Amino acid sequence: MKGFTAALLVWTLISPSSCSKAWPTHTACRDGNLEVLYQSCDPLQDFGFSVDRCSKHLKSNLNIRFGIILKDIKELFLDIALFNKGSSILNFSYPICEEDFPKFSFCGRRKGEQIYFAGPINNPGIEIPEGEYQVLLQLYNENRSTVACANATVTHS
């Protein structure tokens, strides 16, 4: 997707510190009654993310696209927090890159390198109930320094 990569490069060149505004809200997917919107909460950079097929039934192998300019990572972890009406529904942590067990080809890359991942991710196949959900996603390195973070809203009407 050439437009996706070009947009990613433009986003990383513009920093909220050079503007007085937050990063824009992006659409990860939209299909019928389901919409997923996200906004970077990292003050230093934005990133690109999309879901190939937006469906209220999440398949166990969900195809995504993700692109970002890296900060140094030896290890990389993902925390996900899911909320509905202000109440916590789910907290999940997942090691993406461990020093002795790299799961992806971008593990161990250095600051300034671009990650672009397009492919399936394993997750439990679930049906998304009607409602509006807030999701906080945080990628951080072995020092707990933020590599990327996003606030997302999932709306199923």
Descriptive overview:
This is Lymphocyte antigen 86. Keywords: Signal. Residues 1-22 form the signal peptide. Residues 38-154 form the MD-2-related lipid-recognition domain. InterPro entries: Ig_E-set (IPR014756), LY86 (IPR039945), ML_dom (IPR003172). With 157 residues, the chain is mainly beta. It has a single domain (21-156), classed as Immunoglobulin-like (Sandwich), CATH 2.60.40.770. The protein contains 1 helix and 12 strands. The protein has one helix at 2-13, and strands spanning 26-31, 34-40, 48-51, 57-58, 61-69, 76-84, 87-98, 101-102, 114-122, 126-127, 131-141, 146-156. It has a 7-stranded antiparallel sheet, with no helix packed on it. The chain has a 3-stranded antiparallel sheet with strand order 3-5-9. A two-stranded antiparallel sheet has the order 4-10. β11 (131-141) and β12 (146-156) form a beta hairpin. The radius of gyration is 16 Å and the shape is globular. It starts with a helix and ends with a strand. The model is unreliable at 1-20 (pLDDT under 50).
Précis, in short:
By secondary structure, the chain is mainly β.
Features of the shown structure:
three-stranded antiparallel beta sheet, signal, mainly beta, 157 residues, ML_dom, seven-stranded antiparallel beta sheet, Lymphocyte antigen 86, Immunoglobulin-like, 12 strands, 1 helix, globular, disordered N terminus, Ig_E-set
